[in-house]
Amino acid sequence: MKSGQVATEMAARYFRLFVNRLAYTVQSHRPGDRGKHYYYRPRDGRRLSQEAVRAHLNGQITIGIYALNPKTQRSKWVAIDADYDNALDDLLKLQWELRRDGVEAALEKSRRGAHLWILCEKPLLARDCRIYIYNLALRLKVPVKGGAGLADGIEVFPRQDELRPEEFGNAIRGPLGIHRGAHKRYWFYGADYKIEAQLNYLERLKRITEPEMQHFIAGLDMPQEFRPRPKIELPPFDPNRREFRILDFVPAKRRRSGNYWTRCPSCAAQGKDKAGDNLAISVADPRKYKCWAGCTREMIRSALGKPISVRSAS
Ligand SMILES: [Zn+2]
User: Fold this and answer.
1) Count of domains in the chain?
2) What is the pLDDT of residue 151?
3) 15-29, 78-92, 138-152: which has the minimum mean pLDDT?
4) Measured in angstroms, how far is the CA atom of residue 269 from the centroid of ligand 1?
5) 176 shares a domain with 258
6) 111 CB contacts (<8 Å, ≥6 apart)?
7) Distance between alpha carbon 235 and the CA centroid of its chain, in Å?
8) CA distance 74 to 124
9) What Rg value do the Cα atoms of the chain yield, rounded?
């Protein structure tokens, strides 16, 4: 073993912590369009080996790991990816709230933001993990990407509740790998910036057990707004077109992470939203808005005296 090289034993420990299935992706060494370094599944269908993990830890390759094993629909971890303005604030909020549940989540830097990793004692059902995190995000008003068409927000891995046998779901950069574009290794904040210290730290974290997860999600379901639904294609946004614009009716109070935040008219009509920040309106496309307390578009439009007509979907 060359000096400074990661031992096979450490690759084995990493494998135990993070590898859910043997399919994986590798980040391209050369950038593709827009300068991005994309991840690809090895063309020969090669399976993830401890040697590949070792090469990842040594910085020779960078692997992406899958969250969900379709044989079990379970994962050893939940990763929350956030890369917008204020992303770190939101992840720290989640980390703090998880801690109140007795869960120690590890924060790892990323190129534009950070990843928050939560480890499970034994692999847990992806569906349960997702119900837990989405409800937590909703409670803390942490924006979720794609929820109500919000462009900015956290992304939760596993991204699916279940996969069919031939599906892969989504991979995320394996922790401690060197980003091919940034030529940088992103460390966990919680330990010395050495591979062994980082592994020791990760192994010492308090992991979620199955009974704990059952307790956390008792009585909870996936919040309505995060359930899969048919995609409605909006025509390109044209600011000159005459159509309903929520910003004609509510003031754009605060601007944060790609959205305006203001009082939800439907909540207000019910004497709620005293803080005046339940409604998120996409800055890029103000036709997209969402109440974090769960009011539907129909409720918001009627509260404004502009009910959605039966025939138009806008
Ligand atoms: Zn509301």
Assistant:
1) 2
2) 65
3) 138-152
4) 9
5) no
6) 83, 179, 181, 182, 184, 186
7) 27
8) 5
9) 21
Which of 65, 70, 58 shows the shortest CA–CA distance to 81?
A: 65
Cα(127) to centroid(ligand 1), Å: 26
Residue whose token pair is 């138009």: 312
pLDDT of residue 268: 92
Last residue of a domain, one of 167, 197, 224: 224
Q: How far is the CA of 279 from the centre of ligand 1 (A)?
A: 7
Confidence bin at 224 (pLDDT 50/70/90): confident
User: At what angle are helices 50-57 and 8-18 packed, to 10 degrees?
Assistant: 100
Candidates 173, 180, 178; CA nearest to 25 is: 173
Which phi and psi (to 5°) does residue 159 adopt? -85, -15
**Residue span of the structural domain in which 62 resides:** 8-224
Tokens encoding 16: 């135990």
CA 288 to ligand 1 center in whole angstroms: 14
Binning pLDDT at 50, 70 and 90, where does residue 199 land?
A: very high
Residue 4 CA to ligand 1 center (angstroms) comes to 55
My answer on whether 254 and 288 are in the same domain is yes
Query: pLDDT value at position 102?
Result: 94
Cross-strand partners of 260: 255, 281
Does residue 314 have a pLDDT over 60?
A: no
> Global pTM?
0.72
CA atoms within 13 A on the CB side of 291: 21
